[in-house]
Specification:
Oligomer: heterotrimer
InterPro entries (chain C): ACP-like_sf, Cadherin_CS, PP-bd_ACP, Ppantetheine_attach_site
Protein name (chain C): Acyl carrier protein
Distance between the termini of chain B: 25 Å
Helix content of chain B: 25-40%
Largest sheet of chain B: 8 strands, mixed
Largest sheet of chain A: 10 strands, mixed
Subcellular location (chain C): Membrane
Main location (chain C): membrane
Strand content of chain B: 25-35%
Chains: A alpha/beta (about 400), B alpha+beta (about 200), C mainly alpha (about 80)
Order of helices and strands of chain A: EHEEHHEHHEHEHEHEHEHEHHEEEE
Order of helices and strands of chain B: EEEHHEHHHEHEEEH
Strand content of chain A: 15-25%
Number of domains of chain B: 1
Number of strands of chain A: 14
Number of helices of chain A: 12
Organism (chain C): Flavobacterium aquaticum
Number of domains of chain A: 2
Helix content of chain A: 25-40%
Chain lengths: ~400, ~200, ~80
């Protein structure tokens, strides 16, 4: 049973609204830059997809009092979720059984790492202690959109937002909820920058997914949310439907804590499950928004999984991470918005920075903006812990 | 809605005690978690060097799962067991350890092996790797144990035909305070899979 | 050199949490990865940190590790030649 998407909102390094993001995508404008909001010794070597607004500016947008204790993750999430709710033209959030499922990996870590050693002496910063945990971030987002129903958080690394969308779709399908706001939010933090640095998968250049000489990923921060609503609401409220979630699948790669298996077993299974549910054939996919992090391991494994599914007829595909950087738990939310934009505008966003085909296979991503009729988009997201998820979005 | 399925096996690890299906398998006094869990792994006959590389949360979840799955897994065939885990403190215990390794600029050596465990779902991945479960898996973070959510979610997976069995778990670890309650839901078994029974077994 | 090899073995056992493996169990020419000690990619990264922390050697590219970490023998030779502390 397909689930209607009636609203979406986003804030990323390429724009503070859906329109701004679309504009950057079609004008091929990357959001990667030198980091300015965080003091880090890696400043000169890494490039990140950073939102160039300070926490104060973000809080002002939300009309929060100056003594608020929002982490950056919560601020970004609240802004994107509010946009999604406005976009869906929801007047009374609690008129139907509604919920929020938010995905994050860092939660309030940005504040914790800033004030950790001051907590005992400095009373003023103690307010951030309770905003560390990821559930608090979700609760704050729920408060900002005036939601009183179910609130939960999913944390399965870089596939988190895909799993949030999946769970939301299930709650609608089973009738547990009539409306659910789903997506993810992750702010940049030293914690993640250093972590990925130790894994030696950060590129010192602009990331180049599916390129033979790719050197790794750029991190990014972003938040994106969708509003999913039941057929009943869509009819009753005469909603404009942006697109539908028609298929989803999740599988474990069962290979390694952080690395993907050689032939992308988890990715293959996740895509297969999504096709089964959407009741469409691989040949009907018009565009794949790949996970494509530009690490040597991901792109090889994902590329092989794509070939296993599509054989000789791989549809147009691209990774949009050269625009935004890898936004971790938010990534699948960001890419869901981009998939919907592709469907609405019948346009495929290119895979920037690609020059040379990988030696292992002959896959060339879409390299220029391409206009064509788009009915079905497949979006992949894979997380550490072997957690692989695939979503299929459709026009009808 | 949940009457057709059963809890076929369950395991609890807390207060230096390992229980399987209500029977105490190992009980120790005055030891810290690492010592206890090492003994527990020996008690159930685990031979898996990678176990000792895991963080505390993964060791806890992995062993709880191992106690149940070692008798329920047929490695020759595909095992269709989905994993649904949850806790309260996410990976905070390891997050703090990792934070300590990057906080001193004079002695700055962040550990990749610690960083990989700063995500709560890695423990689910460890279970999947050991038993080659390429199934659906999720990790939720709640304020407290939610038997109704757990039973609804597992029932949905089973009734919609997405999986044959579901291994559910509450695995909480923070600063030497821990509790694991892991249980397997499937068609066969004697304990009905419902909210009340899950709560009772959790409390026992 | 012999002392360095012994030291390396004990440090590797410690940082990689090799439970139930003693210094005597590791031969100088045993492969560290694959069939040998069964180390994986995260262990390789941890060994890169060890080179930096204990011997002041910084590897910029993880691919360099492959030849260096072949065995205790190759690792000790590389450290002896390049150590800054």
């Amino acid at each position: 049973m397909k689930v209607a998407i009636t609203g979406m909102g986003i804030i990323s390094s390429i724009g503070n609204t859906v329109e701004e993001n679309f504009h950057s995508l079609v004008s091929l404008k990357t959001g990667l830059s030198t980091i300015s909001n965080i003091e880090t010794i890696h400043k000169d070597i890494i490039k990140v997809g950073e939102i160039k607004l300070t926490n104060e500016q973000l809080a002002k947008q939300l009309n929060l009092p100056s003594d608020n204790n929002y982490s950056r993750t919560a601020l970004l999430g609240a802004i994107a979720a509010k946009q999604a709710v406005e976009n869906a033209k929801i007047s009374d959030m609690n008129a139907y059984k509604s919920g929020l499922i938010s995905a994050t990996s860092v939660g309030g870590m940005d504040m914790t790492e800033k004030y950790y050693y001051e907590y005992f002496e400095n009373e003023a910063c103690q307010k951030y202690i309770t905003s560390h945990d990821i559930g608090d971030n979700s609760q704050k987002i729920a408060n900002c959109i005036g939601l009183k129903g179910m609130v939960t958080t999913i944390s399965t690394a870089c596939s988190s937002a895909a799993n949030a969308i999946m769970l939301g779709a299930r709650l609608i399908q089973s009738g547990e909820l009539d409306r659910v706001v789903v997506g993810g939010t992750d702010a940049l933090a030293k914690f993640t920058i250093n972590g990925f640095k130790t894994l030696m998968i950060l590129s010192d250049d602009y990331n180049a997914p599916f390129d033979n000489n790719r050197k790794g990923l750029n991190l990014g921060e972003a938040a994106a949310f969708l509003v999913l609503e039941s057929e009943t609401i869509v009819k009753k409220e005469n909603r404009e439907v942006l697109a539908y979630v028609t298929g989803f699948g999740n599988a474990n790669d069962a290979f390694h804590q952080t690395a993907s298996s050689e032939n992308g077993d988890g990715a293959f299974l996740a895509m297969n499950k999504a096709f089964k549910m959407a009741k469409i054939q691989p040949g009907e996919i018009d565009y794949i928004n790949a996970h494509g992090t530009a690490t040597p391991n991901n792109d090889l494994s994902e590329g092989r999984a794509i070939i296993r599914i599509f054989g000789e007829n791989v549809p147009d595909f691209s990774s949009t991470k050269p625009f935004t950087g890898h936004t971790l738990a938010a990534a699948a939310g960001i890419e869901a918005v981009y998939s919907i934009l592709a469907i609405q505008n019948n346009i495929i966003f290119p895979n920037l920075n690609f020059k040379t085909n990988m030696e292992e296979f002959n896959l060339t991503p879409q390299l220029t903006l391409k206009e064509k009729e788009i009915h079905h988009v497949l979006s992949n997201s894979f997380g550490f812990g072997g957690n692989c998820s695939t979503l299929i979005f459709s026009k009808n | 809605m949940t009457t057709n399925y059963h809890i076929s096996s369950y395991c609890k690890i807390e207060n230096n005690t390992l229980q399987l299906n209500g029977a105490t398998v190992l009980e120790m006094n005055d030891v810290l978690f690492p010592e206890f869990i090492k003994n527990a792994s020996k008690t159930i006959g685990l031979e898996y060097p990678k176990f000792f590389k895991m963080d505390n949360l993964s060791k806890l979840a992995f062993l709880g799962a191992e106690a149940i799955l070692k008798d329920n897994i047929d490695l020759e065939n595909e095992n269709d067991i989905a994993l649904v885990f949850a806790n309260k403190s996410s990976s905070l215990d390891t997050d703090v350890k990792y934070q300590d390794s990057i906080s001193d600029s004079e002695n700055y050596f962040p550990s990749p092996a610690v960083f990989v465990y700063t995500l709560p779902n890695i423990c689910v991945g460890e279970i999947s790797i050991k038993h080659q479960l390429k199934t659906e898996n999720a990790f939720f973070v709640f304020d407290d144990f939610k038997p109704d959510f757990m039973s609804n979610y597992a029932s949905y997976l089973l009734e919609s035909g997405k999986t044959q069995k579901v291994l559910c778990g509450w695995v909480e670890y923070y600063k030497n305070e821990y509790k694991a309650f892991v249980y397997l839901v499937e068609k066969s078994g004697t304990i009905a899979h419902d909210k009340q029974n899950i709560q009772t077994l959790y409390n026992q | 050199m012999e002392a360095l090899k012994q030291e390396l073995k004990s440090k590797i056992i410690e940082v990689l949490n090799l439970e139930d493996i003693a210094i005597e169990d590791i031969n100088d020419n045993d492969p560290l990865f694959g069939d040998g000690l069964g180390l994986d990619s995260i262990d390789a990264l941890e060994l890169i940190v060890l080179l930096d922390k204990e011997y002041g050697i910084r590897l910029a590219d993880p691919k360099q590790g492959k030849a260096i970490f072949e065995s205790i023998e190759t690792m000790a030779a590389y450290i002896a030649e390049n150590r800054t502390k």
